[in-house]
Amino acid sequence: MFTRRSCQIVMLAVGLGTITSTLGFAKTHEVSMTAIETDVVIDGSGEKYAAWTFNGQMPGPIVRVTEGDTIKFTLTNPATSKYPHAMDFHAAEIDFLKNYKAINPGETISYTFVAKKPGIFFYHCGAPPMIQHVARGMFGAIIVDPKNAKAWPKAD
Is residue 16 classed as helix, strand or coil in its secondary structure? Predict the structure, then answer.
């Protein structure tokens, strides 16, 4: 037979177990990207396009995390670049003016954010003129899976 005190202890233990298991899922991901201005071949005849890329890829690399995870992001703009570059993660809820500022060639910027909402979000270079940076290849996706894997159907 449970007493009121034993019920409180069981409830406390269940609550602590839930908190511990929830916290146990969160991970920290170190994500580094380099702004690379390079020519990429765009067709079978060898036609080249003057692209601006993240890590030499167009589109940039896919970042995949789970809701509640922390992302420690670093963007490097090599001294060999001609233009300033930036990173705007649409999955991040952080100070836009502080973290998404353009960095000049030879500079690096780092910031941290928590992926608070599940979904598939765009990221892109936010340096002006932003549309030119996106058109030249500085964009990609960050996938934030829900904490509860059963919240969405299993992906193929």
Answer: helix
Give dist(CA 142, CA 156) in Å, integer: 17
Question: What pLDDT is stored for residue 153 in this prediction?
Answer: 76
* Both structure tokens of 141: 């996706």
Give tens-digit pLDDT for 16-36: 444 444 455 789 999 999 999
Give the Å distances, CA to CA, from 132 to 82, 116, 127.
14, 29, 9
Angle (nearest 5°) at CA 16 between 12 and 18: 120
For the beta sheet containing 63-66, the strands, ordered from the edge strand earlier in sequence to the opposite edge, are 63-66, 139-145, 119-124, 88-89
Measured CA to CA, the distance from residue 52 to residue 57 in angstroms comes to 9
DSSP 3-state of 66: strand
For the record, the structure tokens of 73 come out as: 């992001």
Q: Report pLDDT for 149.
A: 78
Pairing verdict, β 70-77 and 107-114: antiparallel
The candidate with the shortest Cα–Cα distance to 145, out of 118, 124, 107, is 118
